[in-house]
Amino acid sequence: MEATVNSTENKNKIWNGGNKPLDASYGKMMMWFFIISDALTFSGFLVAYGFSRYKFIESWPIADEVFTHFPFAHGKELPMIYVALMTFILIMSSVTMVLAVDAGHKMQKTKVAWYMLLTIIGGAMFVGSQAWEWNTFIKGEYGALETRGGRILQFLDKDTGKRVAISEFAKDLHGERTTHARKDGIWFTSEKALPAYTVQEVVAGFEAHHNIVVRTEFLDEEGKKTVLSRAASAEKLKDAVLVVEGANLVRNEYGNRLFADFFFFITGFHGFHVFSGVLINLIIFFNVIIGTYEKRGHYEMVEKVGLYWHFVDLVWVFVFTFFYLV
Amino acid sequence: MAHDTHKLEIFRGLLKFKSNEQKIWGVLIFLSIVTTVEVVLGIYKPEFLNAKIIGMKALNWIFIILTLVKAYYIAWDFMHLRDEKSSFRWSIVLPLLILIPYLTFILLVEGSYIYDVMKTGLLSWDF
Known about the structure:
The complex is a heterodimer. By secondary structure, chain A is α+β, with helices and mostly antiparallel strands. Chain A has two domains: about 25-140 and about 260-325, Four Helix Bundle (Hemerythrin (Met), subunit A), CATH 1.20.120; about 145-245, no CATH class. Helix content of chain A is about 55%, strand content about 10%. Chain A has ten helices and five strands; from the N terminus they run H-H-H-H-E-E-H-H-E-E-H-E-H-H-H. In chain A, strands 4-3-2-1-5 form a five-stranded antiparallel sheet, with helices on one face. The longest helix of chain A is centred in the C-terminal third of the chain and has 33 residues, at about 255-290. Chain B is mainly alpha-helical. Chain B has helices at about 20-45, 60-80, 85-120; strands spanning about 10, 15, 50-55, 55. A two-stranded antiparallel sheet of chain B has the order 1-2. In chain B, strands 3-4 form a two-stranded antiparallel ribbon. At the A-B interface, helix 1, helix 3 and helix 10 of A face helix 1, helix 2 and helix 3 of B.
């Protein structure tokens, strides 16, 4: 695709047409421009997260306490380790992608194919890890109560300082309340699945166990969540109206409602990028195998998807910092 | 990008690699070290880094700076911006460098303003 420069006077004026002033092909430049606009979309998301966090600066959930799970390590508190592993998987697949691009420059077809395959595997592993992370987040671990004002009350063992799940202390009151389904009554009303316990059962359990206290959303001077005394806890529990287990787009047991919303939107949007990146990589991978680029004489397509793939990695670096670290 | 035009130095020429492939592995090692430092700091959260600098914890400033360092090496070496013409490089990076801090500044200031209003206003937000 080399353009011919047909007059001698054009040679000195690079912006007069007939050549590539920026020394980049049309396709590559468009990929870069797409990346710029996508980067602005992601920064819009992350800045909106920052906005909401500054708005609720004294009660925002602490990410360390939310993301403490690791597959096959039940009951252990391992903050950050799982996300660090995900980050590492993505950086690794980024590296195999650069190696594929590098092999493409040297026209080594088999090497390109192998590195592309490794990149695809890395991407698929990342998407799988994210699915596990979402599953854990949605299920929740401890459960909490929500007050009339929409604030979350969590439970703590006064003696050990550790979180207590509501299933550990709630008292079974043998209530007969069942989920209302459409077939049981007025056909146009129905409701979502009920939580395993009612507010009354949790409160009764609280009264029976004297070591349980309430932890509110509010952060104290040292940046830790405020733990109430036994009497203040009992007072606070009078405001409770709902049992919250896990997370959805309306409410979550971790604290501020917006926290789960931003988690779903930001990591979901990023995960969608990784997913589509894997699909695009697959297409390019098959094209490499059937020799499309060998015939074309250059592997620029690999370079272009490489740019997209690195961009996905780049975004994750920022999501990792602003969602899990800061 | 023509063949054999890779710039093989990182850290302003402090470290020069023999081939592009070697440079990739070198950058990977560097990025892994930075990530490990971030994770270790994130788990242990040293007490002395809780001091506030310009309204934010020193620890958070360290995280943000390390992230920008990582972003630089991903863009410059993995996305090989280092090998592009500088006019192309800046036409990509400058819009982002101008717009993102601008948006961040505006929205964070607005966010803390709303926090103040809700805190000192006459309405109760926690009932």
